[in-house]
Write a structure and sequence with these properties.
By secondary structure, the protein is of the alpha+beta class. The chain is built from three helices and seven strands. A three-stranded antiparallel beta sheet has the order 1-2-5, covered by helices on one side. Strand 1 and strand 2 form a beta hairpin. The longest helix is centred in the first third of the chain and has 15 residues. The radius of gyration is 16 Å and the shape is globular.
């Protein structure tokens, strides 16, 4: 039986309940790669028949983490959250998962028709964040509900 989202959710609850820090998150990232190897899950959540948009696949009522499916029609570049020199660049290929720990400044760049699954530690629509204007260096606050 293939590793499915039900087992992934149970594993996330167990792992993050014991260790919500970097080690626990790394275990969740590794398990996300296991889930991404499930072709039936990928087809159901990210396949060609899935309409564009952001889908919340799961939100934990106790721990607050979310599992999201991003089905995009257009390319997007999100600037880093500060004017800094990149220390790492990578492209995630099918079945691979990356991780951003708390406070990590990052940017994203994906092509047209990108489809991906994302796990967040909380509902990001409920917290304020910042973004950096790369041209001016100005920091802009992204208020809750406007952040995604």
């Amino acid at each position: 039986m293939a590793y499915d989202i039900k087992q992934f959710v149970a594993d996330c609850r167990d792992i993050l309940g014991r260790d919500p820090g970097p080690t626990g998150r790394e275990q969740v990232r590794a398990n996300l790669e296991r889930l991404l190897a499930n072709e039936e899950f990928i087809d159901e959540c990210c396949g060609d028949a899935v309409s564009c948009g952001l889908k919340v696949l799961y939100e934990d009522p106790t721990l607050g983490f979310q599992i999201l499916a991003h089905i995009n029609d257009k390319a997007r570049v999100s600037p880093p959250h500060a004017k800094l020199k990149p220390i790492k660049k990578y492209r995630l290929t099918p079945g691979k998962a990356g991780i951003y720990q708390d406070g990590t400044i990052h940017s994203i760049d994906y092509p047209d028709h990108a489809r991906f699954i994302r796990v967040t530690g909380t509902n990001l629509d409920k917290i304020d964040r910042i973004k950096i204007n790369l041209e001016t260096g100005a920091i802009e606050k992204m208020y809750a509900q406007r952040a995604t």
